[in-house]
Write a structure and sequence with these properties.
Elements (H helix, E strand, L loop, with lengths): L1 H22 L6 H38 L4 E6 L4 E4 L1 H7 L3 H4 L13 H14 L2 E10 L5 E12 L5 E10 L1 H46 L8 H25 L7 E3 L1 H10 L11 E7 L7 E3 L1 H18 L3 E13 L2 E10 L29 H11 L3 E7 L3 E9 L1
Parallel strand pairs: 7-9
Antiparallel strand pairs: 1-2, 1-5, 3-4, 4-5, 6-8, 9-10, 10-12, 11-12
Helix pairs in contact: 1-2, 6-7, 9-10
Length: about 400
C-alpha cells in the first residue's frame, strides 16, 4: 500500500510540474519548481510515515491483547483448521503453535463427545452465527480433561462470505472442583447430622443385644443348641456398630498432624504384616515391593496415609480370586511442574468395570457383596490424599488387574 502511494506520488509530481511550468513560466525557473515539488513530496512522505507508525502501534496494541490474554483465543479458518493460537491456548492445552497450527480444531474435543459437540457448533453457527458461555470439557495434550466455558463467533469477509470463526475458551476447572468440594462438604455435614442421630438411637439397643448374646454364650459350648445363632448375633451387631463408626468418622473434617516421613519406611512397615490382609484360606497372594532409594522426606500425617495404603492394599487382595500378586512401588516424579513422591499399588485381580470407574471415589458406592463394605474406604482415601495437596489416579482393566497411583507432593 505504501509503495503504491509513493509510486502514485511520483506520477502526480510529474503532472504537477507540467502544470506549474505552463502557468508560472517566466515567474519561476525550473530549479524553483523542482524545489517546490521536492518539498511537497517530502511532506507527503512524512505523512505516510506517520500513518504507517500509527497503524503499526494500533495493530500491535490489539495483537498484544490477543496474544497475551490469559484466556485461550483460537481462530479457525473455513475448513475448521487452526490458524490463531495465543499464549493462553498454549498454557491451557499444552500444544505449541508449531504443533497445533493447521490441525482441525476437533483435536481438543474428547472423542466420546466429539460428534455431539460438532453438531452443536453447526446448529449454533447456522442459526445465529455465535454462542456464548457454553460449558463443556476439553482435552489437553497430556490427556487431562479441563472444564471450560466457550464463546465462539463467525468471521465474515467484507462481502459477507464466511471465512472462519474465533473462540474464546476460559478454563474454570478449579472453580468446578471447588464447587464440587463445597457440595461434598455440605452433603457430608448432612450425613453427619443424620448418622449421628441414627447412631445415638441404635447404639443402646445394639449394645443390649450384643451384651445379652455375649452373656448367653458364656454358658454354652460350640456343640450346644443355639450357639451358632448367638455367634451370628454378636458378629452382625459388631459389624453394624463398626459401619456406623466408619460413617461417623467419614462425616467429620479431616484434621492432619503432619511430620517428616520417609515413605519407604512407612511402606516397609505395612508390607511386613501384609499377609494379615489375606483372611481367606483359599487365596494365595504374593506381596512385592520396589522402592526407589534416596527419596525425599515428605510432610504427611503418617497415620492417615497408613490407613489409605492399608485400605487400597486390602482392596487389591479382595480383588484377587485364588492366586495373585500385589506389588507396591515408590519413585520420585515431576507432574504439573511439581515434584511428587509416587506410590503405585498394582494387583492382577478382577479389575474394575469401565462403567464403575467414575464412581469408585463416590461415598457409599461399592461393588462388594452386601455386608462386605460401606463404600467409604476409597472415598476416605481420596479425601485424605487431596487434603495433603496430592491426588490419586486409577488404571484398571477387567480380568487383568488394577493400578492405584498416589501422588504426594514433596
Amino acid at each position: 500500500m505504501e509503495r503504491m502511494m509513493i509510486t502514485e506520488l511520483d506520477a502526480y509530481k510529474q503532472e504537477l510540474k507540467k502544470m506549474l511550468e505552463s502557468r508560472l513560466s517566466g515567474k519561476l525557473d525550473s530549479a524553483d519548481i523542482d524545489f517546490t515539488l521536492n518539498a511537497m513530496g517530502h511532506f507527503v512522505e512524512g505523512l505516510i510515515r506517520v500513518m504507517r507508525e500509527g497503524k503499526s502501534v494500533h495493530e500491535k496494541f490489539f495483537s498484544d491483547i490477543i496474544l497475551n490474554s490469559p484466556d485461550a483465543i483460537v481462530g479457525y479458518d473455513k475448513n475448521q483448521e487452526i490458524f490463531l493460537w495465543n499464549n493462553g491456548a498454549i498454557n491451557l492445552f499444552g500444544y505449541s503453535k508449531e504443533e497445533i497450527l493447521g490441525k482441525h480444531f476437533s483435536i481438543m474435543i474428547p472423542e466420546n463427545i466429539r460428534k455431539k459437540e460438532l453438531e452443536y457448533y453447526k446448529e449454533k453457527f447456522d442459526k445465529t452465527g455465535s454462542f456464548t458461555n457454553y460449558e463443556t470439557v476439553r482435552c489437553t495434550k497430556s490427556g487431562e480433561m479441563k472444564n471450560v466455558s466457550i464463546s465462539s463467533y463467525k468471521i465474515l469477509s467484507e462481502n459477507n462470505e464466511f471465512i472462519g470463526n474465533v473462540s474464546i475458551i476460559r478454563d474454570f476447572t478449579l472453580e468446578k472442583s471447588l464447587e464440587k468440594e463445597l457440595r461434598n462438604k455440605e452433603n457430608l455435614a448432612l450425613i453427619g447430622t443424620v448418622v449421628s442421630t441414627i447412631a445415638h438411637n441404635l447404639s443402646n439397643p445394639l449394645n443390649i443385644i450384643s451384651g445379652n448374646a455375649d452373656y448367653l454364650l458364656l454358658d454354652r459350648k460350640e456343640s450346644d443348641e443355639g450357639y451358632e445363632e448367638l455367634q451370628v448375633i454378636v458378629q452382625e451387631t459388631t459389624r453394624i456398630t463398626k459401619s456406623i463408626r466408619q460413617i461417623l468418622n467419614f462425616s467429620k473434617p479431616v484434621i492432619l498432624t503432619k511430620e517428616k516421613c520417609n515413605i519407604n519406611d512407612l511402606i516397609k512397615g505395612i508390607m511386613s504384616s501384609a499377609q494379615y490382609f489375606v483372611n481367606d484360606g483359599k487365596k494365595e497372594v504374593a506381596f512385592k515391593s520396589v522402592m526407589e532409594n534416596e527419596l525425599d522426606e515428605i510432610l504427611i500425617d503418617k497415620d492417615q496415609i497408613r490407613d489409605v495404603l492399608n485400605n487400597i492394599i486390602n482392596n487389591a487382595v479382595q480383588a484377587i480370586k485364588g492366586k495373585g500378586t500385589v506389588k507396591v512401588q515408590t519413585s520420585k516424579v515431576n507432574e504439573r511442574n511439581k515434584d511428587y513422591v509416587l506410590i503405585r499399588i498394582d494387583d492382577n485381580g478382577s479389575g474394575i468395570k469401565k462403567e464403575d470407574m467414575k464412581n469408585i471415589f463416590v461415598p457409599f458406592f461399592s461393588t462388594k457383596e452386601f455386608g462386605k463394605g460401606t463404600g467409604l474406604g476409597l472415598a476416605f482415601s481420596d479425601r485424605v490424599v487431596r487434603e495433603h495437596n496430592g491426588y490419586i489416579r486409577v488404571k484398571s482393566e477387567t480380568g487383568k488387574g488394577t493400578s492405584f497411583l498416589i501422588y504426594l507432593p514433596v
